[in-house]
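To illustrate the input format used throughout this study, we show a single complete record. The first block contains the structure-token representation of the backbone; no residue identities are included at this stage. The design step must infer an amino acid for every position from geometry alone.
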């Protein structure tokens, strides 16, 4: 394993900063994937020709930022990134991945225009005879699937969506830019990945997953879209901040 000298603004970094930066860069670049065992402290000490205290300081800082996990007697391992998002906010998944300092990629799996089925009408609150666009997409963080998106768009509310291919841009940010929404409803649940979901997310069948379902309405109280976002359970956490009601 070859380590290269790191610089910052033209100035040589201190040794513990150099160790920290080089390990961090390998993690963020994907060279060291989640679960990878980082060289033991004595190995890094020999590699860098420094004290064990210097190595320990760098590893402790990496653990504090959540990039690595230190296990007693087992060593240090690259942690699987975990994202926290607010339950009551509508986030752009691309921005969520960017917050993890990982490269983002989007992939459209299926796009079907159809008359609303009974299941569609229940999810989207539309009447019989309405036309919907059913989309299935995957969002990637680095090389791995991050989120499976299954979305219905009411073409009565958003007829322009029928002309969009959604091959280069995910439907979420397109809708936010195109159609102002006035109300949203979130449903959060846990589920186990069935065969199809497991294949899409690249996990084992039965893996615990977090599902966020969201429905949005326009100012005219017309249903716009229903989306089901499925994440592998250890990849995502939902957080909401609130204050006590007055009185």
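Output of the design step:
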């Amino acid at each position: 394993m070859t380590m290269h000298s790191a610089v910052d603004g033209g100035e040589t970094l201190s040794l513990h900063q150099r160790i920290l930066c080089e390990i961090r860069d390998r993690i963020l670049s994907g060279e060291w994937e989640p679960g990878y065992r980082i060289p033991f402290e004595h190995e890094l000490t020999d590699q860098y020709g420094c004290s064990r205290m210097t190595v320990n300081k760098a590893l402790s800082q990496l653990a504090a930022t959540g990039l690595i996990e230190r296990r007693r007697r087992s060593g240090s391992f690259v942690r699987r990134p975990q994202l926290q998002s607010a339950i009551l906010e509508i986030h752009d998944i691309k921005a969520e991945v960017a917050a993890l300092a990982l490269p983002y990629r989007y992939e459209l799996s299926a796009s079907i225009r159809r008359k609303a089925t009974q299941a569609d009408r229940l999810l989207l609150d539309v009447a019989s005879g309405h036309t919907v666009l059913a989309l299935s997409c995957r969002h990637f963080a680095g090389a791995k699937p991050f989120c499976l998106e299954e979305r219905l768009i009411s073409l009565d509310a958003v007829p322009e969506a029928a002309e969009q291919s959604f091959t280069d841009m995910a439907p979420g940010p397109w809708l936010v830019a195109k159609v102002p929404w006035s109300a949203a409803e979130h449903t959060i649940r846990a589920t186990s990945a069935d065969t199809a979901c497991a294949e899409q997310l690249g996990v084992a069948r039965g893996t615990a997953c977090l599902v966020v379902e969201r429905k949005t309405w326009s100012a005219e109280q017309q249903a716009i879209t229903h989306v089901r976002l499925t994440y592998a359970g250890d990849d995502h956490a939902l957080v909401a901040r609130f204050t006590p009601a007055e009185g």
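Structural context for interpreting the output: The mean pLDDT is 83. The longest helix spans residues 15-28.
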